Every structure is written in C-alpha cells, then in structure tokens.
C-alpha cells in the first residue's frame, strides 16, 4: 500500500510540476527531477524502490511507442545518414571513448567494467529530448533529427552493456562478435515489430469496441518488447517498428479511434515521463548519502561528462559534412551544430542501466559507476534542459511556426481537392435538387480554409437547407399524412447530403494518410490536419457515422492502400 501511495503522490507532483513549468517556462521533467530529489531528503520520507530489471520493460515500451508514432518510415528513409551517424556510430564511439577515459582515471577498473560504464552514459534519452526540446520551440527539422537518433541509440547501448556484463560475470571475450550480435538482434527485432504490427492490424479490424481497440494499442508495445527480449533481440527496435507499422496502417474511417488513442497517449506519456524522472530524482538521495568520497567520484563524473559532450560535438561536425548536399540535412550551420550538441541529454536508460549493475561487481567500483552515471545524467539534463529555450533565443533558432503553417496549408489544399473529387463523383447518384448539390460543393470549397492553422473550426457539418425562412409565418393547416411524408423527404435529403460529405471527408482523410507516408512531408503537420478532419467528421449524426463508417469511395480506398504501400 505504501508503494501505491508513493506512486500516486509522484503522479500528483507531476501534474503540479506541469502547471509550474508552464508559469516559469521550464520543462516539467527537469522540475520533476529536482522536486522529487528534494522531497527524498525530507527526514522520514519513505523511498520508492523499483527493481532494476523491471525499469526498462516498464517505462521504455510506452514512452518509445508514443514518441515513435510522431514519425514515419518516410522520415527514416530521408534521414538514414542521421540514423547511421548518430543512433549507431555516435553511441558506439561515445561508449568506447568514455570507457577509455574511465580506464585512465580509475586505477584497476579493467576494460569490461570501463566499457560497461561507457555503455551506461553513451545514449541520449529520447524521452528527455521529446519532453524538453518540444516545448522549447525547437525547429521541427532539428527535433526530428533528435527523435530519429533517440529511437534507436538505446539498442546499441544495451548490447554493449550486456556484452561487457557477460565479460565481467561469465568471463566472455569482448571482440567483433558484439557487432554481429547487434546486427542479429536488430534483424530479429525488426521481424518481431512487423509481426506484432500485422497481428495488431488483424485484431484491430475484427474488434468493434472503441475501448477494446484503444486497449489493444496499449498492449502492442509491451508485447513487442517482451517477445523481442525473450528471443534475445532488441526490445527497443521491436517497439519502434511496431509503432511505425501501427501508425502506417491507420484507416481513414478510424477517426474517433485516432482521437481516443492520441488523447490516451498524451496523458500516459505525461504521467509516465513524470514518474520516470521522479524516480531518477529519488535515486539521487542514495547516491549522495551512501558515499563518503562523493567529491572525488563527482570529479570523475564531470570528466566523463566533458568527454561525452566533446565526442558529440565532433560527431555533429562529421554529420554536417556527411549530409552536405542532402535536402534533409541537419545541422546546416554552426548554430544548429551547437543546439544538437547541447541536446545530448541522458535520462531513463542511463539510470536503468546504472541500477542494473550486478552485486557481483566489486562494491567500490559499483559505487563509482553509479555516481559517475548519475553525474553525467544530471550535467547533461538539468542545466541543458533548463537553458535550452534561452539558447534557441540567443541563436535565433526558435521556431516561428512558419514551416508548419505552410505544410498544413499544402496538406489542407490536397485534402480539399480529394474531397471535392469524391463529392463530384457521388453527386450524380444523389436525388437532390440542383441548389442543394451546389451548396454541398460550395461548402467543401471552404474545407482547405477551415483546416488552415488560424481558422475557427467548429467541427460541425452544416445542415443543408433550401428555400426562404418560415420563421414567424402562420402555419397553414396541412394533412398529417402529407406532413409526415414531407418530413420524411427532408430527413432523406439531409441524410443523403451528410452521407455525401462523409464520403468526401473520408477521401480527404485518405489523401492525408497517404501524404503522411511521403518523403518530405512532416508527420506532425499531417497529424494536425488529420485530427481536424477527424474532429469535423465526429460531428456527423451518430446513425450516419455508424452507417457510413466502413464505406469509402474507390478514391478513398485507393488512398488508404497507397498509404500502406508507402
């Protein structure tokens, strides 16, 4: 019961830190870490203890899944150089260089233990970057580069950690087999991700309950992670591939489901991120109170942090040269090089790996490794995260939203064109007066404007009416049967009009889903337009939504299939 109370209390503190962060213009994860660390030092305050072996399986799957759904396969195709240089090369080089620094600074530590510590401090944390860089108004191009890096670097760090751990506990040899092991684990993980994505798609098409389909999206990342780890593959890569596949297979008519899942993951991401950073802050109490030589060990940690920052700066220069001539290059100049270097924040993976150091490691070395890891974590997270908005302002790199507005405007026009084409194909089949048909076409000609960033969107589908107003006019006596037939004809005409708009909006959503899988399209802009279309569609009468939810024009179906092919 005490553990449950501590978790609930930490979640409540997370909400308070979010509100305080909005007032102070500070990232709430940084506030959560500082506040939880301060609370942990209150005399008599119980300590929330989580077993090290459950930290990664508990926190990584949902957070990686939520982050990966903000991107697409097209982004990885466009930024494969960034992925190779940062996610794979930089993480491995940082681990080995940091290990060399530790080996030189700590007498008698040995290469395996040094490499284990290097792997712990090597990977920047995708959750920290997402939570800190997003609210700081970082340009989308740079944020996408950081997200691409952060989704995969934990995988190679975990492989290096496990290889070094095997050398320490079982006497295994360190050598080229580490790379072979990573490649095999990555291939298996990709297979697991595609398999879980396919099963998710099949199950999602069979289940009709909105709550059950939302719950299915919660189960998927944990299933992918655990299955991959069970066959000694990379759980991180499996979760990312699963997220990309489930997002790619989204259908135009799943608007209500998309809104529900997005709302859930926004809340879950906030609370789980707060809990994770709160746990990091609570662990700092043990690091500080259980060490008598803290000053010396902190000095080693500062040296290792300086080495990791220097290696990252060098990697950004290499990336700048390697991507020269590419349309999706990042960084493009020295300012962006500084920002991408600045955002090498360590977080949850570093903490979890540090806590996973086995008791068989000599106590003095284990203590040193935990203190160094926490020092690197704090140095790369707290000051950098807190000062990131200031740095972006000084370098004049804060996003003014222009690129997003232009992308949204372009996608809105594409959605409008598809909607009009689908409507005009359907109009000859409708037994409606010409005046109402013209009104339908005219209304959809304003769709692009309604989806624009600065429009006022009510989400309502206006009622189609015709003729002069009869308000305050005396009602003539009519035959009840004729009145009933007249009302029936009016309902039928309205239903036909709404059904036609439903088909048109399905075509618009199919176009946006297909565009989301194209190289050069910002997934965030596509998601914004898609959410507005989904919101507009949800305002349709419930019985018509149920009747036409699974119906789409050939163009809409072709758009959805095109999204699958991409």
From TrEMBL:
Pfam families: Na_H_Exchanger. The keyword Lipid metabolism does not apply. The chain crosses the membrane at residues 54-76, 83-106, 180-200, 264-282, 294-319, 339-361, 367-392. Keywords: Cell membrane, Ion transport, Membrane, Sodium, Sodium transport, Transmembrane, Transmembrane helix, Transport. InterPro entries: Cation/H_exchanger_CPA1, Cation/H_exchanger_TM. It is found in: Cell membrane. Residues 462-481, 543-566 are annotated as: Disordered. It is a multi-pass membrane protein. Residues 13-393 form the Cation/H+ exchanger transmembrane domain. It comes from the Bacteria. Its main location: membrane. This is Sodium:proton antiporter. It comes from Brachybacterium huguangmaarense.
